[in-house]
Design a protein that fits this description.
It is a single chain. This protein folds into two domains: 74 residues, K Homology domain, type 1 (Ribosomal Protein S8, Chain: A, domain 1); 96 residues, K Homology domain, type 1 (Ribosomal Protein S8, Chain: A, domain 1, 2-Layer Sandwich), CATH 3.30.1370. It contains nine helices and six strands. Helix 7 packs parallel to helix 9. The longest helix has 21 residues. The chain is globular, with a radius of gyration of 17 Å. The termini are far apart.
Amino acid sequence: MYVRIPMDRIGAVIGPNGEIKREIERLTSTKLTIDSDTGCVKIEAGDDPLSALKAESILKAIARGFSSQRAFRLLDDDQLLEIVDITDFAGDSERALSRLRGRVIGEQGKTRETIERMTDTYISIYGKTVAAIGTAEQLAVAREAIEMLLSGREHSTVYRFLDRKRREARENQLASR
């Protein structure tokens, strides 16, 4: 199995003195071979083929701008990585991409932080993508909020949507007890 990492994220995958690479290998029982010239990472699974998929998800998360600590959340079986391509909403116009990235980030990071807090996810805006880590239910809400912003909806509309979804989730949780 192979994953391509952007050249400016290779250092984040390797870590100081190779610590992050070794930690990924240890936690997933895989062997990683990193080509620093091309950004190509070969993943060799041990006995458990699922471990290679977990290593792949962690590598993709780091490639999309997450810290290794946040990416390691993907070791939990219920945690998934979701990636939204901003070009689906902006085309290839660099100006439109920049504007849409800014809408998701918000002033001083407020919008990204609000989505993270209201959905209990991690969000990273990197290049032409917005990535999120969370459970399937959390990601569904986060993705919808992100797509609403990318489609031009008002921030206040998105915040109300997130608040309503959080209330519904709490009510469902109480009802299931």
